[in-house]
């Protein structure tokens, strides 16, 4: 098949892009950013680079649109024909393009959100919290619905799991570009102002092109802490109170901001970054202390600046806004403790009592940050009490808008973040606890023993310095017995000695494997009678948390059986908790990728078993998901609003009854799917030689060389066993090979085993669990590519395993289309379908370059060192494919 002429290539690309039916303004953004990248490639790339990029681009588009083997072979030949240095540049160019397309797509989402807010009230969005409250009020009455709203809790927990393939320098460049694109897009921009914005974008894209896309070395745990802090500083600190404000605006109408808010702060943020040591030897007790100190520094600095800003603007004269007796008494106490500053402030604000007090409160917050014992607050409750005095004084003087305006947002920030910002959680493997206790009982002192005991001392230190909310949850990975949970309390007592006081601990079991999920209800029934657990239950009002792992259970038995087992475990634990009068919070260890429990959070929440949510939802957020959901303020607010709405509605009797009835109605379907999917999954992963074959047909081993995070990719076993391979590289490797097996394998066989297409279509309509599972599989399959998958599988010289994978892929694709009632994948989700189709041929280009590099590495002498040029090309393409598919692990 001949190569297209430049004119034909331009016409083909234009027709392809026009066929994607992009919103016109987004199309203009993509065209603008793409043309600027083209200028950068001409100016800064080596001679002929732009032309080579266009050759490969037009070839992969042609291969994608006509699907002929000849067109695909021609695209592959172009990728294979580049010199290694040119292939490197081409891979970088496509990766840059994906960053720009992702930016344009995010900009369009923000634009739509803003236009929606301008055109209508937030309550008009059917999946908003005000809309959910209105629906719930119709069902159970307004007073009961408001009570549930006040008890609402959304608890995202940020983790350092290494799934963000971008360097922070690249992310920073993209964020600057986002601001420039917004400036360019402003309604009042035209002529010279728009040209100036375009010139600055060109300059920033040149920076992006010249920035090394790969990290030189793995980040340290402290680097990971600081990376997450950037999200708090730039987004969450202000976005969360803005969510509360927008909801209160809707609920109170014209009275909003001039009366006490209806909304209670319902977001609590957690973090494993610097606390999660399961399999990560670099997270030490010293790191945990430092992580808590860094987080506290960030929030106290934010609170100090906010208090200063509000205080400086609170220029209310005593004659118009007289202080209350409580405010006058507070001023006297503050003045006595900080005489020089009080005198200076009083001189500058002689008749502004509220301003004077708030400026001195800002000084006390600063003293808390710098650890000035004479002025520092003991805990955030003291600060809240002082702020309430100011608020009450303003309200009593009739200054209602000052009382419930910006000052209320500061109060919300203190309530949400305290002095710790994020509740730091420690996680450790149950086997480590058992080994350390065995050493202690044998009188042995090892480095591991000392480090494990020092962690408990670190928790006590963090609680003492930053308050009990700052740390206290201790998650036990691979909980297999009640003894595994009791061991944490035994170790805590060892750590402080016979005369010491152990830290306050809420020990949280993490049930991960298929067997552990089955055993979970029995383990919980046993542990609540343990003395430490029983006493803690009484102190907390019988509150208990249980964590469920999506990743390892899916790797254990496949995605279908894992999802069904997770649902059953939740249902049984929730029912047990109701019988025992326990206020249960289920903590969902969900990853970003579909193979690790990812997908839209709000639809997953609404598919949960009865009483398993009850107004509380906690989940892990990691890697690229953190920046996708919380990196932009408008998107973060929309995400929090949607999730909160789903949490509120999940406990509605109508939703719970729908889920219960559907689970009963389709119990036989579930049993059939469970057995069939597990058998099919085991026929693959338990086949002789599967583990080394998997390592050969995917870049699994090479992913360990990508400096994504501080955590090792394996817990220690060789490639002969998958048992100790972490779930992230398991999912990541299949994603890179464009197979996405971890997200769908076994569903086709499961649906085929049921066989009744009409019943399955009815189940898809009526059974939320199946609908969520099928929709997520559709998304996973849409991002896969059978032609490229076959080329990866051919590297393994095992036709039996390759045929098994490909036949299951085709079977699953066929059944998903039939069950959902469309003509192709994602037919019922046109926006998502468009996004996948728009990217696919460009991802294909990077996949072909990756295949070229992987073949060279696989064909090399086993005893020879890996070729660094091909290894670099492979890692560059890994970063690019991750950007193109918008997920890693």
Task: Provide a descriptive summary of the structure in words.
It contains 39 helices and eight strands. The chain has an eight-stranded parallel beta barrel, surrounded by ten helices. It is mainly alpha-helical.
Helix content: 55-70%
Order of adjacent strands in the largest pleated sheet: 1-2-3-4-5-6-7-8
Number of helices: 39
Biggest sheet features: 8 strands, parallel, barrel
Distance linking N and C termini: 37 Å
Q: Which regions have little confidence, pLDDT < 50, spanning 5+ residues?
A: 593-597, 714-719
Strand content: 5-15%
Average pLDDT metric: 90
Please tally the β strands and state the result: 8
Q: Class by helix and strand content?
A: mainly alpha
Overall, the morphology is globular
Radius of gyration (Å): 28 Å
Task: State the gist of this model.
The chain has 889 residues and is mainly α.
